[in-house]
Amino acid sequence: MRIEQTVSARDAPGLRHTTHHRVFWLLVAILIATPVSIVLLQIGSAALAPRSDAWAHLAEFVLPRVIGNTVWLVIGVTLSAAALGTVLAWLTAVCEFPGRRFLAWALLLPLAIPGYVLAFVLVGMLEYSGPVQTLGREIFGPDLAIPAIRSRGGVILVLTLCLYPYVYLIARNAFQTQGMRALEIGQSMGLSIRSGFFRIALPLARPWIAGGALLVAMETLADFGTVSVFNYDTFTTAIYQAWFGLFSLESAMQLASILVLFVFVIVVLEQRLRARADFAATGSQGTGLGRLRLGRKSAFAATGFGFLVLALGFVIPFCQLIVWTFGSGSEFDARFFGYVWQTLVVASLGALLTTVVAVCLAYAVRNRGGPARWLARWATLGYALPGTVLAVGVFAPIVTLNNTVQELLVRAIGPGAPQILLQSTLVAMLLAYLIRFLAVAHSPVESNLLRITRSLDENSRILGVSGWQMLRRVHLPILRGGVLAAFTLTFVDIMKEMPITLMTRPFGWETLAVRVFEMTSEGEWARASAPAVAIVLVGLIPVITLTRGSSRVD
Amino acid sequence: MRNVKLMLVGLLLTIMSGCGAPDAELVVYSARNEPLIKPMFDRFTEETGIKVVFVTDKAEVLMQRLQAEDSNTPADVLLTVDAGNLWWATQNDLLQPLESAVLTENIPEYLRDPEDRWFGLSVRARTIVYSPERADARMLSSYEGLADPMWRGRLCLRTSKKVYNQSLVAMLIAEHGEAKTEQIVKGWVANLAADVFANDTAVIEAIAAGQCDVGIVNTYYFGRLERDNPALPVKIFWANQGSGGVHVNVSGGGVVRDSRHVENATRLLEWLSAGEAQSMFASSNLEFPANPAIAADPAVAAWGQFEASRLSLARAGELQSAAVRLMDRAGYR
Amino acid sequence: MWIELRGVSHEYGGRRNLVDVSLRLEKGDIGCLVGPSGAGKTSVLRCVAGFEDVCGGEILANDRVLSRPGLTVAPEHRQFGMVFQDYALLPHLNVLDNVRFGLHALARSARRSRALEVIEMVGLGDVLQSYPRELSGGQQQRVALARALAPRPRLLLLDEPFSNLDVELRQHLSAEVREILKHLGITALMVTHDQAEAFAVADRVGVLRDGRIEQWDAPYNLYHSPASRFVAEFIGQGVFVAGQMTELGRVRLELGEMDGELNREFPAGTDVDVLLRPDDIVHDHDSTLRAEVCGKSFRGSDILYSLCLPSGDHVLAAVPSHHNLQVGEHIGIRLQAEHVVVFPRPRED
């Protein structure tokens, strides 16, 4: 019956169908999760190969020790980095003490020091043959007993110093948003500052801290460089041993897939922890006025603590690098600017791509929820895989694709067809970075997105500002801190990254990290110092931009 | 808007750059690092007019890459260190046999593949270093001897995860069989003065600082420290003289199975095996030339003559996996 | 612009939370939706705004369909304004820029002057450059209002706009908002849980219950002739007492007969419940009808007494506050009602 469908009034312009955008966002999430799925599938399919005798050997002699070590390490580093990052974030975001302004951004600097460099410097200094112990023996005699730096505690210390900035950066963002308000609420309820911190400010910042801590846990699991300086056996070193020592890539992949499962469990736990409360409300503006003035003693302690962390995590290793740079006559020739330039190009392109995709992913989660949330977790698993394993996992499918295309080309044109090498293009490189570092960019963006309440969106739409305009005029200004943080973290991470860069760089494409690898691969640490210093200096650029960006909130 | 479009085009061009095979007559995958090989290649191009491009990476990764790229690989030559890696490359059919009179003449048989798929280009010796102040050279004899209880608390070793130690133990297995070798390795572990170190340099420094008295290292690490500090209170001892010889390993290379420039590739290897190139290749890293006709660097020669183990390096590669397992069992981390 | 909802239904999470909602606002009228929480007030507002899709019925404005099942005009195309409960101010913009935010349709040069005009109108001329976090709640509310009004919306929606403010400010602001809206001649629909606010602002009030409109009417009618027992109980104060219809079409109560205008007719002898508002009972010193004071609450100009009748029934009476009686004392009262609200007594079975 046509008549029933006739509407008495005319349809207004702009009438739209309504169910499409949920499907759209689900598709976005699926698209983003696809590359990592291919890589994980690659690893998983290798894992399905029958257990070799290499596996039996690993299971009997290697795994028992390695699993205990890994669990200790992950728990130790995650907890201490979370605690350190949170405390420093709280101090610099809410309190007032001498040096706060400087420390607020300086405490991000350890980010620019690659973990293996910090490990090498600290181990070199604090070992028996190092200057500290040598001096100690000269003063106090040869029987001086100093706890060994190459121990579980030592690894945890070094990794904590390297990784706390992830928590610091993200938690600081949260505390800044809360401002003093959380404390004021606490005081109005008769809580002391201390319990105000523990009972209001901290729980409010929990999703932020948890996001940072998750990154720390994943990075710890994936770390190879730092633990090998300490000769501390972890799951990752077992993977490399299976591959390089036992020549069993299958066993390595089997171990890697166990690692992925393990990480997925951590991720799910974090997700559940987070899901218990709706944090969207914490987003609204803090007063932003006033800071908590610390008493003389506390202020002194805060300043001292901040500078101690800065010294251990940045100043000491950086000074050592500088000394080496000048002592070893490392070459600062014209080619060096080429490395810096190529590093900048690679890191900015990679960070840009990763951040944009992370923002899309965060929106997919926001607009679709449910399945998109799981896909997002899945898509960020690449961060927990040891770099070389991931590099191979990314490389193999690209090469397969390349060879298929090549074959088609030869079939079409004949044997004279040009040879294509997708695997050595920046495209492959950027894709690999994306898979690896999506987690790093996703975390700050996602937690920042919680600040944009539904009513902000709706208000914008009803005022006729929708789509890209809304993104530009409402979301990006509010997300700016998170997006900047995402970009910075990814940028610095890509700069330090070695295995993927080595494997997928185009011919003749040399970055600073590649230079560091060239030197350290033959144990020439001193000669690696020049590119390492350059990494730190280039890393300063986004860190300073970031602090300038976020200081406007101060 | 036009600026944005221009930028996008530029970006795209940058991204696509490097797409397609490099325009070169020779592509090298090298596990030897750039500062060591770049000068050699420049020289080679100068002399022969053959343009060389290369990528560096870990040996294992490069070989994985060759395997994945299969017949579409752009690579012509694989350069790497350690016989274990070269052995694995042949096992996985990554290299092709070469018929080169030059190479067979320049490189002694025990320093190349029995089927001539790879050739050693420089020799590195892994031997004992000691503190002349605290250890009597007369008490030193062999790798096996370091398992003696008299070295209890006096030995420093590098981690077993380094391929150099894996090759060393593989050689011991070839010589003594697994059971005896395991006893030796257990003896070492019992004698350790400190947890195993991450690199050879740290071992030498620990001896210099007095943390331990003896250790096993590659000579070029010693050479580097000695160069920086001529008064280094550590000395080299040539192990196993008269009982098998010092454990030597090689850095070497071969031509990739699906190379599109076999002729040029062979030419590079031949060029590296003789004359000044061979001398440069070895001495740039304070190693020994593989070609016996070429003299070693004076700093290296100053350590004295020694008898090297003649055990086929291919055999050491074959036994590497067994060596790793043995060390795991013996508790050598 | 007029707006009309015709039999609108809406589902949320598989549950139908609006059923057959119909209402119409004429141009320049202010409508208000009240009801207990969860009744669907905000859902109506969100459907009108276009944030929610309807699954039945249609929403029309000036003879054009804005929503019907499967099709919805996007909020950004409706040219409405909305004031949100949490104000939804943009934290990174100052007052001026917040207000200027929705003025993209104007020429660039006209935006500033329009924004200033509206800001002046809501009395925020002296905090132009302040950021939302630096403003008090009342000021934030005014910014939200100014921002919604600036683009001259065809319809203004207000979602519990005063709920975050203290009582005094709320009364003051609600009167002011009505004045502004009337002055501009803007059609508006507001949601509130405070009926005093609804009465102060609205020309028409709708009472919602479980997703249905119980009554859509002028405040006066809502109060004096509620369409259902629920509306009667929800709007204003009052208690039901038992009564019976007389032959003359009056209602007989324990307190006597009522002769006001009845909201509906019943046959004689019907048992009914009669709504007695506090202002239906007046203090009369001379009355023979006396009741005991069981409770009292001082309200400034009057005192609300809860009175116990001999039968045990309770009634409320608002008495000028100079008659200050203690609990337990007796007071003379008289019925005085122009409107009598009667409902059939539910059967007790």
Molecular structure report:
Chain A has helices at residues 2-5, 20-47, 53-94, 100-106, 115-126, 131-140, 152-178, 181-188, 193-222, 225-230, 235-245, 249-275, 296-327, 334-368, 370-379, 387-413, 426-449, 454-462, 467-496, 499-504, 512-520, 529-551, and strands at residues 10-11, 15-17, 95-96, 292-293. By secondary structure, chain A is mostly helical. Chain A has a single domain (26-553), classed as MetI-like (MetI-like fold). Chain A is globular, with a radius of gyration of 25 Å. In chain B, strands 1, 2, 3, 4, 5, 6, 7, 8, 9 and 10 form a ten-stranded mixed β-sheet that branches. In chain B, helix 6 (163-176) packs across helix 14 and helix 7 packs across helix 14. The longest helix of chain B is centred in the first third of the chain and has 15 residues, at 2-16. The longest helix of chain C has 18 residues, at 167-184. The mean pLDDT of chain C is 88. Classes of the chains: A mainly alpha (554), B alpha/beta (333), C alpha+beta (349). The interface between A and B is large, with 71 and 64 residues. Strand 1 of chain A pairs parallel with strand 5 of chain C.
- Can you tell me the CATH topology of the largest domain in chain B? D-Maltodextrin-Binding Protein, domain 2
Which strand order does the major sheet of chain A show? 3-4
Poorly predicted runs of chain A = 1-9, 14-18, 277-288
CATH architecture of the largest domain in chain B: 3-Layer(aba) Sandwich
The general outline of chain A is globular
Tell me the structural class of chain B: alpha/beta
- Summed up, the domain count of chain B is 2
Mean pLDDT of chain B: 90
Helical element count of chain A? 22
The largest inter-chain interface, given as chain pair and residues per side, is:
A-B, 71 and 64 residues
Largest sheet of chain B: 10 strands, mixed
Broad structural category of chain A: mainly alpha
Helix content of chain B: 40-55%
Which fold name fills CATH's third level, the topology of chain A? MetI-like fold
The major sheet of chain A is characterized as: 2 strands, parallel
Write the layout of secondary structure elements.
The complex is a heterotrimer of chains A (554), B (333) and C (349).
Chain A: H1 2-5, E1 10-11, E2 15-17, H2 20-47, H3 53-94, E3 95-96, H4 100-106, H5 115-126, H6 131-140, H7 152-178, H8 181-188, H9 193-222, H10 225-230, H11 235-245, H12 249-275, E4 292-293, H13 296-327, H14 334-368, H15 370-379, H16 387-413, H17 426-449, H18 454-462, H19 467-496, H20 499-504, H21 512-520, H22 529-551
Chain B: H1 2-16, E1 26-30, H2 34-48, E2 52-56, H3 59-69, E3 77-81, H4 83-91, E4 95-96, H5 101-106, E5 119-130, E6 155-156, H6 163-176, H7 178-191, H8 200-209, E7 214-218, H9 219-228, E8 235-237, E9 247-256, H10 262-273, H11 275-283, E10 288-289, H12 298-301, H13 313-318, H14 320-330
Parallel strand pairs in B: 1-2, 1-3, 6-7
Antiparallel strand pairs in B: 3-9, 4-9, 5-7, 5-8, 5-9, 5-10
Helix pairs in contact in B: 6-7, 6-14, 7-14
Chain C: E1 3-12, E2 15-25, E3 30-34, H1 41-49, E4 56-61, E5 64-68, E6 71-73, E7 80-83, H2 95-100, H3 108-121, H4 137-149, E8 155-159, H5 167-184, E9 187-191, H6 195-201, E10 204-209, E11 212-217, H7 219-224, H8 229-234, E12 239-245, E13 251-253, E14 256-258, E15 261-262, E16 271-276, E17 281-283, E18 290-298, E19 302-308, E20 314-320, E21 330-335, E22 339-344
Parallel strand pairs in C: 3-9, 3-10, 7-8, 8-9, 15-22
Antiparallel strand pairs in C: 1-2, 1-4, 4-5, 5-6, 10-11, 12-13, 12-16, 13-14, 16-22, 17-21, 18-19, 18-21, 19-20
Helix pairs in contact in C: 3-4
